[in-house]
């Protein structure tokens, strides 16, 4: 039997992205491999969201090359992305997951069981029949995670998924992310919260002005930054 295709390692080789005269990412080289969560941090406008879109294949570089498991085609074989403000379909929570399973071409005979398992996984089993748009912000983000997990991803890309949530909702989302990581899913997540970096990250990618400024183990980055920009960012100074 043929082994399933893999999207890892995810490699960006000297990648740049221009929007008119503006450089959003500048000659960035990065390799993402299996393991603990990788968190992408940096000041606003540093290119975090654009980097995630490139990793998903939703944007194409102006220069350089992105590859997934050695393949240069951008078709998402084993990856999913979750944005900061996901759009909820005008359906129940269960029907939102059903739609994601249909898009992932899950067999109809397996969908009911998968819907129940995914909603249980994100703590929404009791809200299966509630309209998705009437869920709280934290519940909607957990439902969005269930939809992403319906794709059975090898890589899960997250764009500041807790940015607008209160501490209790943030904890719930973080627990799901950690469980996904422990199950073998590679988490690549943008975050503005240094406490969250300490709680979740195995390693950190620090961007400044669209370039890779520093990369390493989370504890080393947080406690012993090696660049002037990282030290300033960790102090809470503006990095321009």
Short characterization:
This protein has a domain at 10-89 and 152-235: P-loop containing nucleotide triphosphate hydrolases (Rossmann fold, 3-Layer(aba) Sandwich).
Can you tell me about this structure?
The chain is of the alpha/beta class and 240 residues long. It has a domain at 10-89 and 152-235: Rossmann fold (3-Layer(aba) Sandwich). It is built from eight helices and nine strands. The protein has helices at 48-56, 93-103, 108-121, 137-149, 167-182, 194-200, 218-223, 228-235, and strands at residues 10-19, 22-32, 38-41, 63-68, 79-82, 155-159, 186-190, 203-208, 211-217. The strands form two sheets. The chain has a six-stranded mixed β-sheet with strand order 5-6-7-3-8-9, with helices on both faces. The protein has a three-stranded antiparallel β-sheet with strand order 2-1-4, covered by helices on one side. Strand 1 and strand 2 form a beta hairpin. Helix 4 packs parallel to helix 5 (167-182). The longest helix has 16 residues, at 167-182. It is globular. The N and C termini lie far apart (52 Å).
Q: Topology of this structure?
A:
Blueprint: E1 10-19, E2 22-32, E3 38-41, H1 48-56, E4 63-68, E5 79-82, H2 93-103, H3 108-121, H4 137-149, E6 155-159, H5 167-182, E7 186-190, H6 194-200, E8 203-208, E9 211-217, H7 218-223, H8 228-235
Parallel strand pairs: 3-7, 3-8, 5-6, 6-7
Antiparallel strand pairs: 1-2, 1-4, 8-9
Helix pairs in contact: 2-3, 2-4, 4-5
